[in-house]
Fold this protein.
Amino acid sequence: MKKLLYILAALAIIVAILHVIAPKTYHVERKLVVSENIDTVFKSLCSLKEQQIWSPWGAKDPKMIVTYKGIDGQKGSVSHWIGNKEVGEGEQEITTITPNSYIETELRFLKPFESTSTGFFNIKQVEGGTEVAWGFKGNNTFPTTLMMVFMDMDKAMGPDFEKGLSSFKAYIEK
């Protein structure tokens, strides 16, 4: 019995240490320049329906069911998806729109696990077109913090953002 208590105490100490050293936030972002004017780019990125056309996650599940609420492209509009095990189920709601500059969404993942993140687009006019920065950020809470000790969110999600931006570029420049 004493041995079991020592083992449980050791496990509790290990978990506490991992939680303390784990990253408490994450931020994944990728950028590219498209040769389209800022007005066209911004309007397209505001549209949750258009996002579905070039989304890397849509490509992972072509049979994904997506529904929309609200007026597409405006604050408060929501897309809800139910997909395979790779994309799960969740919602994206536009929460902030700063014309020709910034779009922020709340991403609510429901399955396979619940979490909330902030998605964003930073858009600015640059020489040769419009720079689009796409990313997401959020906080790691217990017990997710334990997984983050062993997982690099940028390496895990970055390639999806790169693929999505590449698809967006092909879409918007067509």
